[in-house]
Amino acid sequence: MRCLIPLAASAAAVSVRIATPCPANTVPWGDGSCEPFSTAKRDALKWLRKNAPPSDLRNVATLFGTPGGVDGLDAGVAAVAANATLTAKMRWPWAWGVPRDIFRDYVLPYASANEPRTHWHGLLAKAVEPILEALPRHASIADVAEAINGYGGNSSVWQNVGGVKFHSGQTPLIYDPVSTVAFGYASCTGVSTTYIAALRVAGIPARLVGTPAWLGDPTKGNHNWVELWDGVSWRFWEGRPAGGGETLTNPCDKWFCKAARFPVNGSTKVYAARFDRHSNQTVYPLAWDPSNLDTPGIDRTNAYVGMCSNC
Ligand SMILES: *[C@@H]1O[C@H](CO)[C@@H](O)[C@H](O)[C@H]1NC(C)=O
Ligand SMILES: *[C@@H]1O[C@H](CO)[C@@H](O)[C@H](O)[C@H]1NC(C)=O
Ligand SMILES: *[C@@H]1O[C@H](CO)[C@@H](O)[C@H](O)[C@H]1NC(C)=O
Ligand SMILES: *[C@@H]1O[C@H](CO)[C@@H](O)[C@H](O)[C@H]1NC(C)=O
């Protein structure tokens, strides 16, 4: 479904009050428990630090801030991410039910892969919050993800940051959200990390997914796109500048989700990036840095063969 809700229903919904599941200044978790914000933040920072890639741990004070530091020295992009994502989880009703393990791996992290660590929470909040405020409180995660991407209202994160166009071949020069916004263009990786960042600002679990080589042949190129957790399962599409006219419901409407690219022999490997580096499942391969095995991943090959080999 392209449109979120009919305008009449949307206007009526604004007056519907949705009861907050938790007392003020406590964070709701998917299991119905409520945790004081300060405890949740301490836990979130500890988890980020425990799972940060080795290259980030060389910059731990830069990323996490110096406790008690003055003139802004107590801040850092990881510290801001913990504060902002827990605040979003308390504020937006669609984020209340996200369980702690999914929140940690796919909302809390300040990065998707090895892109430059930048303060995208500060940059994107201004572009995303007006979209969220215009939505009815009962909007689903899919509704919110559609609105941010520009399907369902008159605005989008792309428009609100001044416009982002697709230009092929920009990774690794331009592939973090702040660079994408500053240049006004990116290829599939930059468009994906920017859309993931915008979803995380809204409290929505999202992750980078892709193949390092179509049909296992690096000369055939690579591709990245986005998966988001809708409350039940992972759905996929692209940030709109990289793929217009796609939906969250029909896998086959993506240009790349075709039998020719996903033969049943599984020669096209697909991985999703995550932050939890202790599950020891697999590595998210970086097409732009193949010997760098620092980004944890999940093998999604079978899921995509299942979804795309009939398209
Ligand atoms: C953390 O979030 C709170 C809102 O929950 C906000 O008032 C505060 O300024 C934020 N602190 C930092 C350091 O970003
Ligand atoms: C979109 O714009 C039209 C025309 O300006 C307006 O009537 C409508 O209310 C807007 N829709 C939303 C969802 O903001
Ligand atoms: C997998 O199947 C495709 C399409 O039939 C074929 O082109 C490719 O060579 C196969 N790869 C392997 C490793 O079997
Ligand atoms: C993950 O695997 C590596 C390599 O086998 C091992 O050194 C490490 O201890 C494992 N981590 C955990 C948390 O099991």
TrEMBL record:
<dbReference type="InterPro" id="IPR002931">
    <property type="entry name" value="Transglutaminase-like"/>
</dbReference>
<protein>
    <recommendedName>
        <fullName>Transglutaminase-like domain-containing protein</fullName>
    </recommendedName>
</protein>
<feature type="domain" description="Transglutaminase-like">
    <location>
        <begin position="166"/>
        <end position="234"/>
    </location>
</feature>
<dbReference type="Pfam" id="PF01841">
    <property type="entry name" value="Transglut_core"/>
</dbReference>
<feature type="signal peptide">
    <location>
        <begin position="1"/>
        <end position="19"/>
    </location>
</feature>
<dbReference type="InterPro" id="IPR038765">
    <property type="entry name" value="Papain-like_cys_pep_sf"/>
</dbReference>
<keyword id="KW-0732">Signal</keyword>
